[in-house]
Amino acid sequence: MMPRNLSNTLTIFFFVLVSIAAFGQQSTESMHMDIQQRTEEIFDSLVQIRRDFHMYPEVGGNEKRTSQKVAEYLEALGLEVKTGIGGYGVVGILKGAKPGKKIAWRADMDAMPSKAPDMVEFKSKYDGVRHICGHDVHTAVALGIANVLSSQKEDLEGTIYFVFQPSEENIKGALAMMDDGLFNIIDPEEMYAMHVTPFPAGTIAAKPEEMFSDYKRVDLLFDESIDQDSLFSYAKKTILSMENVDPGSKFWNMQNMGDPEIGIAGPKSIYKNYTTVDKNNFSIKEIKNGILISGYLSFSDKQQRDSVVPKLKSEFSSSQFKNGLKEVSLVNVFPTLDNNEQLTHTSLEQLTQIYGPNRVLELTGVVADGRSDDFAFFQPKVPTVYFFMGGSNYEKGIIAQTHSPIFNVDESCIKTGVNLFSSLLVERLK
């Protein structure tokens, strides 16, 4: 039996701990309620901002007006603003009233060349240029997050960097910003980004590691004395044999990626454990030290990717060309997005606790149409998570299929992005 005085002291100590924990939980819940209220207040203005960017789209390397608008908005919020980073890149720095972690949010700003008719009333005023990849939405969401969290500055612990990146579509902007000293200006412990997808508006999704298939060129180098016609025919056949998806599979209808059962978020996803081959993209040429044959493959994961070179070598080792093969190698074509496993799981869990499992999805498959995002270039520098954000409203016929002539978004997704990702940053700052 412990002394009575010690017992009383421990009881009081326990009561204080419980009270502090309860207050902290209540305070955090209150912040998330404030986030949602503030988002409601500014939502209409964010829609107008998005529509302004949509009407005045600028392709990579030409985002002068967009950059200026972004900088002016951030300055009006009281953020420290840096401009001209890697071209028209902008960084806004929001410092909370209390010390804490440092976290970055990245949004891409550039539009794309497109002659397709615009799907909305607020049409592009620049002939041949359109926002058909959703970067106008990304920029509006990031500005909304900056607005909402600025209003909670006195309760924030730490620093948030808002990175507005140019030239994502031509895969130049991330590297340009880093070459121009981005990570001398910011030093985040974590970094986040998102992209609009055809998922229903109101939802977000992510998964650890690959989000997009890993698109690679395979190079086979042979001795120049080999007969080229027969070699090329056999090499093509051998590369094609690396594909492990049945020709009649539903896999090949890219609309099935959104299927609730077999799509990339479905419990029975068919978009995993795959290797595919670009059947119309083979080449042969004579180079200084031999004959080079190239093809292109996509992989759902590292295991699929790492198995292909040994498989090709094995196939050739039992062929008539076994003595002529000098080298097999995989070459990067696009950067490969690779989410941090632990950070992804933690982020999804935290958002699920706040907004529920119906709005926060963990993907089971990998996007199979050969896309990527140069956000991948930031990933070796800092732990990152890249999210998909739904922008479709199927009942209204609004399909957020990026790079498509019919691309359109349900603008309610702006509210979703601001709410969920503001809450995420608040949670991650703790």
TrEMBL record:
It comes from the Bacteria. The keyword Disulfide bond does not apply. SUPFAM superfamilies: Zn-dependent exopeptidases. Keywords: Hydrolase. InterPro entries: Amidohydrolase, Peptidase_M20. It holds the Pfam family Peptidase_M20. This is Amidohydrolase. It comes from Flagellimonas okinawensis.
